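Me: I keep going back and forth on a fold encoding question. No explanation is needed for now; the record alone will do.

Assistant:
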Amino acid sequence: MKIKYFTAAIIAGFIFNSCAGYVSLKVPALTGGKFVPEKYVPKKPRVVFEDFEAGAVIGGYSYANSAGGASAKIAISEPGVDAPKSGNYAAKAVFNTGADPAWGCGFGFQSVYGGGFIDAADREYVSLWINAPHGMRFYIFVNEASANGADGEFWNSPDLTGAGEWKEYELELDLFYKNIYSGNQNGNNLLDTVGIGTVGLQVGGAQGGGEILIDDVIFK
């Protein structure tokens, strides 16, 4: 009998230990039993692309599916009216996505901290604080400059959804895919973080209109 009990204890211990990683990820008392991904821990100092504290949107531009009735405009936020995530300013886009579900509008900006590009070599994530209408579909784009070893390719994130309030979107750059309609199509097919020229956001069509605030764009 002792041998049987001993064997059962060994088996039970093996099962528990083999599942230890699984059990440790679920903490019902704290998370309701949901898996909570660990926040990315930067391996190098962060690189601030733009925080808008210069009180201007450097190199700001917008585009829209005007044939579908869309429109967009980007400018600096208005103190006392718009609430930035931090500091005194954020970028503010006023837009209408029109009636064509194929695509709506977008807006981008450069960095006040670089001469046409930012060197974010070896950084693996981009982080942006965005206040977008709840449920609104959009994606982030990171466009290379043709400088400092970068070859001018444009890269898009997977689809994202607005939270209706300020939310940090921390995106792994490895998940971005190359834009096959814009940017250099004869490059090295790698996201060259040594020369980031533009960051921005594109909103899907037929979602109505509104405002989006963007703040604290950081590579890490």
The longest strand covers residues 209-219. The radius of gyration is 22 Å. The first helix runs from residue 2 to 18. Residues 1-36 form one domain.
